[in-house]
Amino acid sequence: MTIRVLPYAFALSVVVLGCAPAEIKPGDGRSHLPCPGASCDVQVSVVSCFAMFNCLMVDFDVVDVPRGNAPDIRWKLVTEGYTFTDHGIDGLPNPPFSCQLAGSGRQFMCRDTHQGSTTGSWKYTINVAGPHWVHSLDPWVLNN
Questions:
Q1: What is the pTM of this model?
Q2: For the CA atoms of the chain, what is the radius of gyration?
Q3: pLDDT tens-digit profile of 40-55?
């Protein structure tokens, strides 16, 4: 009976370790999107993972907003058949973020009112709905 439990214990440990929080810092191995202008776009895709599941993938793990900038951050869902939920971008505090669903559910936009007074890093969750269940993704916004 112990041998049968071993694969389940291994799978559970992989899930728990994969959910461990990590610090955002330069050279951390994540892909950073510099956002110095009036807006920046993050592409969101639904991809197959783990044979039976669908996962989300973004082209950048961290949206990096420099001091003094207040951009519109737009997440664009590029996979057909899927839309953002009403809480498609969830977990960003208001203020400095004001978020809303846009583009017939295929886009989500957040205004980052960061003007240098609100620095920090925020982990947020991307949620989508479609013909198949999709595991949420938790990237970051960094206000320098």
A1: 0.80
A2: 17
A3: 999 999 999 877 789 9
Q: Which residues, at least 6 apart from 62, have a Cβ–Cβ distance to it below 8 Å?
A: 24, 30, 31, 32, 33, 139, 140, 141, 142
Nearest in space to 119 (alpha carbons), one of 137, 144, 97: 144
Domains of the chain with bracketed CATH: 28-143 (2.60.40.420)
Q: Which residues contact 10 (CB under 8 A, 6 or more apart)?
A: none
Under 8 Å CB-to-CB from 106, ≥6 apart: which residues? 76, 77, 83, 84
Residue 17: which residues within 8 A CB-CB, separation 6 or more?
none
Q: Of all residues in the chain, what percent are helix, strand and coil, respectively (each to 5)? A: 15, 45, 40
The secondary structure of residue 66, as a DSSP letter, is: P
All residue ranges of the chain with pLDDT < 70 are 1-27, 115-117
